[in-house]
From TrEMBL:
GO terms for biological process: regulation of DNA-templated transcription. It holds the Pfam family GerE. SUPFAM superfamilies: C-terminal effector domain of the bipartite response regulators, TPR-like. The keyword Nucleotide-binding applies. InterPro entries: Sig_transdc_resp-reg_C-effctor (IPR016032), TPR-like_helical_dom_sf (IPR011990), Tscrpt_reg_LuxR_C (IPR000792), WH-like_DNA-bd_sf (IPR036388). This is LuxR family transcriptional regulator.
Length: 813
């Protein structure tokens, strides 16, 4: 079975699967085809595995995955995770030079990175010797050709196929090479190549012949010349760059006419719903506004129904570019759909722009309710982008427009929005707004409003007293199993992930993360998935699995269009691990996180202030650590503030000896309360029960020598070199090794050895190398070597063996 991904403005949703099903037979294939036609995503996944006959091995080929739509990538992820149980060889081709760290395909490749079922076949550039073999007999200088092309096989073969005779006249670009080959074709051949380029990467042979009558004569010429390649049903270029270069060569009027002819042919009834996006593309290129309006919205709706939200957004944008003469009533609906699709696919700035335009249009139309609803959406999106003040202003403007309006969906949703905005400030009015929203929702029968308002009320218990988890979880499961509440499922689920991770409920958080990630992937909810992945990074950080934490964080930070709020947890993860290891400055990441939202917002910035305090403490800057902790505590003015956020800040204020004002929030649930009361043993035990070794070690720093020694061992096991240095300093204090004491002790030693030098001598006598001494004392090998040199000089011995013998005599006189 074989399918293709296309480089269209709006790729076909599930295009490769549609291609594969074209010739598939059997009941299972028919059922799957029906599920695709019905845009039934759940049925597609349910039937997919059944298509493969357990008695027959299948080869499933998906070409050009770098052009895949979002729904296809999700389908490939689904198959890849089950490949071990299926009789299938799944082959995916892609151009690695067309995907970077932020390409959607990079996420799928990352998911498969550790799979034992994956084999990769990479194509390396040609060597100069290989280029010489290819160019033998052509009169082309192999060395010059290799320098020109860098050994890229396509560039090499295109230049050679262009038939350049003079060495000085080598084509300067691939486009020139392609144009040179086209110039050698007859008129019929060029027309065939032009029509093929317009029809897409793989043109259906029947379509090509209808669009270009000259193909009857010119196709064979193109195939013989190597300009085109064909299989049983399709024809295309050997490389997409060749197709694009050909498109650039077609005169504008001719290109438009070819698109128009393709549009006419493909629009012949019965209309295949899978080509709606292609029809919209051809209509756009042909300048046929009416056809764009006919096919664009329908294609966007189909893409949205299949969960391909990004493709839907692109199709609505295409439609809007041609919507100038359309009635405002229609145009505003497309703006709103574009905004929703953009939001769900993780493009918040585009969503805000379209909702703003829609609100202005609703205002001009005198549609007060519609304007209020659009402003409500703007408010929510601005809050997600960290523009809290603007978000609150938009939310209040929405509610003002609804003053005096009776119960209606717009009023209910505006009240829900205000409840959620109040939650960000731990404002007690959130319950009041949510209760009003619930009452209106019940009165008008708006289920989604009622569920979301119930969730807002239940979250009060989670954020203010660490209770109510089961209630919120039940509401969330209701949302993800109720038709029409998909977005709400993403909102509640990502919120649960966020708070469970921050509250150190790691098992609970990891269960949420797995379920939310699967849900968001299935429904193309690109806006919420980074929250789950960021929470996974924090959980791995707490557990001490720092390599895994960094992998999760990098997954989010390298994604395109990731919003500032989605980046906070990954930024904290990377900054804290680097600081704890003493490897890299964390200031830039934490500065970016601090700038992600407006000042004095504890909900988002509480963890940032705590991280900044810890980073300062790790480098020994207690004054800055104290200032950062106090800055965070100054924002904790609400008696309903999350005790986990406040407690984390109090820890650092306590640890560096700063003034500790408990403030209005009361902590009866977190291990932090034990730390700041001086009960380090209870705190360490609580952190250990939660599965947080680093936090347990921090608590142990407040204990006696055995406790701090245990903390030091934990820091060493985690690779937390900077934290180990602080533990070592704490041990020195407990053992009375202050600078004055060290000077007196050194002076008392008959050979002038310091305490550290005596420690090094003891390890040296036991036969340890510099590297082993460094690991044992948690210093660098270079520092260990300096200590050894100082010891040799003070003892007046020549080498390590003599020093070891000296130490042995001292211990066994």
């Amino acid at each position: 079975m074989r399918g293709w991904c296309d480089p269209l403005t709006s790729p076909r949703p599930l295009g490769p699967l549609v291609d594969m099903l074209a010739d598939a037979s059997g009941e299972q294939a028919a059922g799957l085809r029906a599920a695709v036609d019905a845009s039934d995503t759940e049925a597609i996944y349910a039937r997919l595995a059944g298509v493969f006959d357990n008695d027959t091995a299948s080869v499933c080929i998906v070409e050009d995955v770098h052009w895949a739509d979002g729904a296809t990538l999700d389908l490939l992820r689904f198959l890849s995770r089950r490949i071990a149980s299926l009789p299938v060889l799944l082959v995916m081709s892609y151009r690695d030079d067309e995907i970077g760290a932020q390409h959607p395909l990079a996420v799928l490749l990352g998911d498969l990175a550790t799979s034992a079922a994956v084999s990769r076949i990479g194509l390396q550039p040609l060597s100069e010797a290989a280029v010489a073999e290819l160019s033998a007999g052509t009169g082309t200088n192999a060395a010059a050709l290799h320098r020109l092309t860098g050994g890229n096989p396509f560039f090499v073969t295109e230049v050679l196929a262009a038939g350049s005779d003079a060495r000085e006249a080598l084509p300067r670009s691939v486009s020139e090479a392609v144009w040179g080959r086209l110039a050698r074709l007859s008129n019929a051949g060029r027309e065939t190549a032009y029509a093929t380029a317009v029809c897409g990467p793989r043109a259906d042979l029947a379509l090509l012949h209808e669009v270009c009558p000259a193909a009857a004569e010119g196709l064979a010429e193109c195939l013989n010349a190597g300009v085109l390649v064909a299989d049983a049903d399709t024809v295309g270029f050997r490389h997409e760059l060749a197709r694009r270069a050909t498109l650039d060569q077609i005169p504008a009027y001719q290109r438009r006419m070819l698109h128009k002819q393709a549009l006419i042919v493909l629009a012949e009834p019965p209309l295949d719903p899978d080509v709606l996006g292609t029809l919209a593309f051809h209509a756009d290129q042909a300048g046929d506004t009416d056809a764009v309006i006919d096919y664009g919205p329908a294609a966007a709706e189909r893409a949205s129904a299949l969960g391909a939200n990004r493709e839907a957004a692109e199709l609505y944008a295409l439609t809007l570019r041609h919507a100038g003469a359309m009635p405002d009533e229609q145009k505003v609906r497309w703006l709103e759909q574009h905004a929703i699709s953009s939001h769900l696919s993780g493009l918040p700035d585009a969503a805000v722009g379209s909702f703003h335009d829609a609100a202005a249009l609703r205002r001009a139309m005198g549609d007060r309710l519609g304007e209020a609803e659009n402003l409500r959406q703007v408010s929510y999106l601005l809050w997600l982008l960290g523009r809290t003040r603007e978000g609150v202003e938009a939310g209040r403007a929405s509610l003002r427009l609804l003053e005096g309006v009776g119960p209606c969906p717009e009023l209910a949703w505006s009240l829900v929005n205000m409840a959620e905005l109040a939650s960000g400030d731990f404002d007690p009015r959130r319950a009041e707004y949510a209760t009003r929203a619930m009452a209106v929702g019940i009165e008008i029968g708006e289920t989604a409003v009622v569920v979301r308002a119930r969730a807002a009320v239940a979250m009060v218990g989670v954020t203010s007293g660490d209770t109510g988890w089961d209630e919120v979880e039940a509401i969330w499961h209701e949302a993800i199993t109720t038709e029409g509440l998909t977005e709400l499922g993403g909102i509640i689920g990502s919120t649960l992930c966020w708070f469970a991770a921050l509250h150190h409920h790691l098992g609970r958080a990891e269960n949420y993360i797995a379920e939310v990630s699967a849900f968001c992937t299935t429904h193309d909810l690109g806006v919420f998935l980074p929250f789950a992945t960021g929470a996974a990074a924090i959980c791995a950080l707490h557990r001490g699995d720092w390599p895994r934490a960094l992998a999760y964080a990098d997954d989010v930070l390298t994604r395109p269009t990731t919003g500032p709020m989605q980046r906070i947890m990954p930024q904290l993860t990377v900054a804290l691990i680097g600081a704890r290891r003493g490897e890299q400055p964390a200031a830039a990441l934490l500065d970016e996180a601090l700038a992600a939202t407006e000042p004095n917002e504890l909900f988002r910035l509480g963890p940032v202030w705590a991280a900044r305090a810890e980073v300062a403490w790790l480098v020994g800057d207690d004054d800055t650590a104290r200032a950062e902790a106090q800055a965070g505590l100054a924002a904790a003015t609400s008696p309903h503030a999350d005790p986990w956020l406040v407690g984390h800040l109090r820890r650092w204020a306590y640890l560096v000896g700063g003034p500790l004002d408990d403030g209005p929030a009361v902590d009866t649930v977190t291990p932090y309360r034990h730390e700041i009361s001086g009960d380090w043993a209870a705190a360490a035990a609580a952190w250990t029960r939660l599965g947080c070794p680093y936090d347990a070690a921090i608590a142990q720093l407040g204990g006696d020598i055995p406790a701090v020694e245990a903390a030091l061992e934990t820091f060493r096991a985690l690779g937390a070199r900077a934290a180990a240095r602080r533990a070592t300093q704490r041990l020195a204090q407990l053992r009375g090794r202050n600078p004055e004491t060290r000077r007196k002790t050194t002076a008392a030693d008959p050979h002038g050895l310091t305490n550290r030098e005596r420690d090094v001598l003891e390890l040296l006598a036991a036969g340890h190398s510099d590297a082993e001494i460094a690991a044992e004392l948690y210093i660098s090998p270079k520092t260990a070597n300096r200590h050894v040199g100082a010891i040799l000089a003070k003892l007046g011995v020549r080498n390590r063996t003599q020093a070891a013998a000296f130490a042995h005599r001292k211990s066994h006189p």
